Amino acid sequence: MKKKTKKTSNFSKNLITVIMVALLYAVVAVALYTGKASRQLSNMLIPISAYIVMAVSLNLVVGLLGELSLGHAGFMSVGLFGGCLLSIALADVLPVAVRLPLAMLAGGLVAAVFGLVVGLPALRLKGDYLAIVTLACGEIIKNVITNLKFTGGALGLDTSPVYSNAKTLLPFAIVLVFLTMIVMMNLKNSKYGRAIMAIRDNRIAAESTGINVTYFKLAVFIIAAFFAGAAGTLYGHFFANVKAASFDYNMSIEILVIVVLGGMGSVRGSIIAAIILQALPEVLREFADYRMLIYSVLLIVIMLLNSSPKFAEMKGNWSIGSVVKLAKNKKKSKEAAENEQ
Amino acid sequence: MTHFVQTLISGLSLGSIYALIALGYTMVYGIAKMLNFAHGDVIMVGAYAAIVAGSMLGMPPIVAILISVVVCTILGMLIERLAYKPLRQATPLAVLITAIGVSYLLQNVALLIFGSGQKAFPTLFEIPTITLGEVVIDGITLITLVVTAIIMVGLTLFINKTKMGKAMRAVSEDKEAAGLMGISTNRTITLTFAIGSALAAVASIFYGATYIYVKPTTGAMPGIKAFTAAVFGGIGSIPGAMLGGILLGVIEQFSKAYISTLWADAIVFAVLVIVLVVKPTGLLGKQVNEKV
């Protein structure tokens, strides 16, 4: 009986997230297609959608599997170049409606293959070593793409033949975001998700109950890379020129900040944090200069509050959601105190 | 042949810098079991400290070097106290993310203070180049090699012969048991950070003197490469860090000279991936068995 209520609460929680995102996109879509959306908003839509997908997929690795991947931007980059190259090749043959999903699928698959290639050696490693190997792989990917001829070299790939504006791309972005969200939510609540979390909490215990650690770790890497690649392809179509150099270690960290700030393992948190962190520097220009400084302070403070025994009384996962909850609880206890009086 | 020897010497010089930085990584990893991601950025701070003291305030070179070392040592201890010490019992993931945060904090504070442009490193050493036959050795290269060799001998003696070195080895072996033997673990860890950061300051002086220009992200790449070197040599092992650093520097310079400058970084990182896959313990690392 207890189990059942928990399941329904998980379900309703996910439903709320889905409805929230759907409403948000509905409002934005109406604004965009009636021409009421400002230039700034339509410029932000596609990158934010891409970042949501990136953050939710990285959350699978960091939050669910408990391993740090610092090469997520690298997967995005290979997916972007794979997908966009295909898209450019097919630009005259197929209309956008067919070409773009195909390119996104191709980009995702290319990235998934890289996820497999990076994941295989990474399987033997964990913790710091895994982080540094993913970082190294991300840098290798960047370096190789920058030096290859057919990817445009250091000047970047000219994606202007397949460039599309926000109005064309938004439906695809919405589909991709929902797909990512639903896959992650279902995975988290499934047998597989619990197996992955068991590996995170205690690898040896998980192994002894018959969970195939290798299989699940690899699967997580491949799925996360797939979505990163698909998001990359979408991202690439929104610009007339893309350089591999911009998908570096800094970008991986930026996505990591979103995941940590949103709450590790929380799909909803990642989405909210992605929107806030991407929109803030656009809205507040003065903030842009201090953006990375604030991110770094946030990372440290969240980690200290979350993991230090000194702050154990305040424990609970510190994220946007729990701050709201804390505020609510405080309000409640205040009301309770007033009632007593 | 001349080209080969010349490349070898520049490789040794770069390798010495990597080795100095790698020592900081490996000592901290050996004792605190954490990857101090911010170590690379301590180098950047050291270089800026030398620029402020040497160029802006016009202090004599030796004072500038001392200031750089002192600033880095204090910074290393401060980082340990404020960011890492509260997380002693936390999961490795939390510590690693904090370390990344510290690294970014240092870079961005430097960015705010000094701007994103390059600053020229002051001329601290004025040593004539030496010509041996057709091989030309820069004065700074020579100093780098000599000083690194002295530091390595000194550090090895310190670790193996002094009481504090013994305490450090004990803590890295078994923190609890060391505590029970009356060793102050916290003080030992802080000392390790201090030594590692001081070595980073020395590395920053040589780095600045060799490559002249410094910017806020200067520390990141050598930092990651030095970590690669530490892993290559076997993390936690001091001779391993020295060997790994020098080998990596030589590999990098040879790939630059004989393959392509563009591919050098990819090759260095490929070395890291290969080492970790084939022999995760590194060249001189100890095999650690996982206990259930």
Tally of individual helices of chain A: 13
**First and last CA, distance of chain A:** 38 Å
Q: Could you say which overall geometry of chain B the principal axes of the C-alpha atoms support?
A: globular
CATH class of chain B: Mainly Alpha
- In the sheet with the most strands of chain A, the strands line up as 1-2
Low-confidence stretches of chain A: none
**Helix fraction of chain A by DSSP (H/I, runs of at least 4):** over 70%
| Arithmetic mean pLDDT of chain A | 83
Annotated CATH topology of chain B: ABC transporter involved in vitamin B12 uptake, BtuC
Proportion of residues in helical segments of chain B? over 70%
| Tally of strands of chain B | 4
Strand content of chain A: under 5%
| Largest sheet geometry of chain B | 2 strands, antiparallel
Biggest pleated-sheet summary of chain A: 2 strands, antiparallel
- The helix count of chain B comes to 11
Order of helices and strands of chain A: HHHHHEHHHHEHHHH
The gyration radius over C-alpha positions of chain B equals 19 Å
Assign the structural class of chain A, choosing from mainly alpha, mainly beta, alpha/beta, alpha+beta, or little secondary structure.
mainly alpha
Overall domain count of chain B:
1
Shape of chain A: globular
